[in-house]
Amino acid sequence: MENYDEIPKYRKKKSSKSKSANKSDHKHQYKDCLLVDEENRPHKAQYCKICGKINNIIFFETERVDERFRRMLTDNEVLQKYKDLEQFQVKSMWDKYVTINK
Ligand SMILES: [Zn+2]
Residue 55: which domain range? Predict the structure, then answer.
């Protein structure tokens, strides 16, 4: 018996409409958090409360010093700034998901 029913169908890769069509059956609910990578560098980001998807990572946190200059915050300053946020350990800031403990 041969069954060709399961030939994969490739839909258009980037249709403008169907953002929600990629895997997730929910609307992501992003919440602020702090990611800490293996080198202990903190990054402000957001994660989805439901699936753990990471969003909006801030790679370099800066602060306006005066009208012309901004400076980068040190890791410590970032930690202090976001110390009230939930923290997640990630391998690197390229991770796509955090592990949600329930
Ligand atoms: Zn989600």
Answer: 26-89
